[in-house]
Amino acid sequence: MAVGIFDSGLGGLTVLDAARERLPDVEFLYYADSAHAPYGVRDADDIYALTKAAVEALWDRGCNLVILACNTASAAALRRIQEAGVPPGKRVLGVFVPLIEAMTERQWGDNSPPREVEVKHVALFATPATVASRAFQRELAFRAIGVDVEAQACGGVVDAIEDGDMILAEAMVRSHVDALRRKMPEPEAAILGCTHYPLMEKQFQDALGADVKVYSQGSLVAASLADYLTRHPDMLGEGDGGFLTTGDPRRVSDRATQFLRREICFTAA
Ligand code: DGL
Questions:
Q1: Helix, strand, coil share (%) of the chain residues, nearest 5
Q2: What's this model's pTM, rounded to 2 decimal places?
Q3: Which of 63, 154, 194, 265 is catalytic?
Q4: Does ligand 1 have an atom closer than 6 angstroms to the CB of 130?
Q5: Is there a catalytic annotation at residue 63?
């Protein structure tokens, strides 16, 4: 029994780790489309085609449920995949909604009209494609009114993380936070809207200062997945867990082991 977790590369491991902690008895099949990462600089058609191929590969391997642990794919491809129709018994879900529900203090699945919430000034850090899609602002508008969102497209951060160049990644985080502050001097909350960024969470928090509440997706997505699987146990699927990549398995395994500080062994997708 395995639930599929998809990302363009290593960022989704931050979601996988939180899901494993929350659901220790569930197996997960992780798929990193490393050969095509980063997605955040691609156009929406390209992201759709790559995401669809990866989701279908996970369905074919027995997963009934695939989590897009990638904001870029959730922003540019999720709705299109769902609207095109998924095979019977299969599902694909994204990572925006649990985060927005937490920020707007809603219970899971609360569909009541948008209302005023406490937080008024929100900084969104995400990939260029996620920012361009405005998907985050759209989902937020369904749930909250009066929230000012300033988005910062963080070009280069994912490439640096995928290359294991954490010094460059940190320098880029600082410069993106500076750029955001020039547009919104005093954000109350910051959204790490890319699953790679929790690997740099401390650097974001340091650059933003202790007064800014930083939201990242791992534990929020894990909690909503646990809730979903309780309501839909048939979504546990078939097949074994593991780690697949479209890139070089040894290189990807080395980086993943470095990030998660435990042995991770990817095989070819
Ligand atoms: N981790 C991804 C996200 O959440 C993908 C980043 C990328 O491939 O550019 O957006």
A1: 50, 20, 35
A2: 0.94
A3: 194
A4: yes
A5: no
Residue to mutate (ligand 1; options 39, 96, 259; most atoms within 8 A of CB)? 39
Residue 109 phi/psi, 5-degree rounding, is 80, 10
- Per-residue pLDDT of 244-264, as tens digits, reads 999 999 999 999 999 899 999
130 Cα nearest atom in ligand 1:
10
Closest CA to 93 of 216, 214, 232: 232
- Closest by CA to 194, choosing from 218, 167, 223, 224, is 218
At 148-159, the pLDDT tens digits run 999 999 999 999
Domain ranges of the chain: 3-95+218-268, 97-216
- Sign of the torsion angle spanned by Cα atoms 214, 152, 54, 228: positive
Is residue 239 within 8 Å of residue 62, measured between CB atoms? Answer: yes
Helix (H) or strand (E) holding 183: helix 166-183
* Residue 197, both tokens: 């960024």
Task: Quickly state the pLDDT bin for 237 (edges 50, 70, 90).
Answer: low
Pick the CATH number of 97-216 from 3.40.630.30, 2.60.40.420, 3.40.50.2000, 3.40.50.1860: 3.40.50.1860
Atom in ligand 1 nearest the alpha carbon of residue 95: 4
Q: Is the CB of 38 under 6 A from ligand 1?
A: yes
